[in-house]
Design brief:
- It is a single chain.
- This protein is 90% helix and 0% strand.
- The protein is mostly helical.
- It has one domain.
- The longest helix is centred in the middle third of the chain and has 138 residues.
- The protein is rod-shaped and about 190 Å long.
Length: 153
């Protein structure tokens, strides 16, 4: 009987174990494995999305750097053009000032020559008048300078 109890007990244990395995598999393991599979897919999707976001971020950073480089280059170009235009404008102003100075200088020289000629003419007239007065005083001859006739030139 001891052998019979052991065999029966073993058979009943196997049957109970089979029923337990079947019920755990149906009601516990399948839903648990299903949830675990869903969680695995969710994590994979999140990893793919994170990788995609990182790639987009790198692309945006490269684009931003390129925009900054382009902006700096454009600003540098604009600054160079402004400096060049300013230098050109300054050269034009300097040339205009030189031309005006030259014209003023030429006009001043003409005015000086004109005044010199007038001064020489006045000196010549005064010398003539003084010469006549000296001749009249020395010789006692001649006409009165107030009468307007000149004997010495």
């Amino acid at each position: 009987m001891a052998d019979l109890f052991n065999v029966t007990s073993l058979v009943l244990s196997i049957i109970v174990f089979g029923i337990l395995y079947w019920s755990l598999n149906k009601y516990c393991f399948k839903p648990l494995f299903s949830i675990m599979e869903q969680r695995k897919l969710y994590i994979q999707n999140m990893q793919q999305q994170a990788e995609s976001n990182r790639a987009e971020l790198i692309a945006f950073q490269k684009e931003q750097q390129q925009i900054l480089i382009n902006a700096r280059n454009e600003a540098k170009k604009m600054l160079e053009e402004t400096i060049q235009a300013s230098n050109s404008h300054a050269e034009k102003i300097i040339q205009i000032a030189k031309n005006e100075t030259s014209l003023l200088k030429d006009e001043a020289l003409r005015q000086i020559q004109k005044e010199k000629a007038q001064a020489m003419e006045q000196l010549t007239e005064q010398v003539d008048g003084i010469s006549e007065m000296i001749v009249v005083k020395i010789t006692g001859n001649g006409t009165d300078p107030s009468q307007g006739t000149n004997h010495v030139h």
